[in-house]
C-alpha cells in the first residue's frame, strides 16, 4: 500500500513505473523506469531511435513543419490581407472596392461577384492590367476559386503600385457557400 506524504513517489501501473507528483494535484507523469537499467527515462529519449529507424518519415515531418512556419510568416507579414465575406461586402458597398477575379474565363462566366473584373494571374504577373490601373487608390479584392491562388496575384498588384489589396477568404466557393449573389455570363 502506497502512502503519499507530499513527496514524489513511484507507482507501478500496467507494468511501468510512473512518477506521482503530489504538487500537480495527483497527476501521474509519463516518466518511467527503463526495464534494463534502474534509471529514469524521459519520453524525449525515444526520438533519436525513431529518427534513425524512420529517416524518410522524419524528413517529411520536418519539411511539413518548415512549410507551415514559412507559410504562416508569409501570411502574417504580407501586405495583402485576407478578409472575410462580410468585410468584402462592406468594402464593396461602403468604399467602392474593385473585385478582381483571377479565375479562367470559363469559370468566371459560370458565376462571379457582380461588377468584378476578370484579370488572369498571368496578366497581373506580366503587368497587363488594362482598365484596372485607374483603380490604384481604391481597395482591391482579389478572388480565386477557393482562396489559394489569389495571394500571389495580390502580391503582383502591390508590386504594380496598388495601395490596398485584399484576398477573399475561401474564394468564390466560400462566397457561393453562404448563398451570396453571383452574376452569370459576361
TrEMBL record:
It holds the Pfam family Rhodanese. SMART domains: RHOD. It comes from the Bacteria. SUPFAM superfamilies: Rhodanese/Cell cycle control phosphatase (SSF52821). Gene3D superfamilies: Rhodanese-like domain. Residues 93-184 form the Rhodanese domain. The keyword Transmembrane applies. The chain crosses the membrane at residues 49-73. Keywords: Membrane, Transmembrane, Transmembrane helix. CDD domains: RHOD (cd00158). This is Rhodanese-like domain-containing protein.
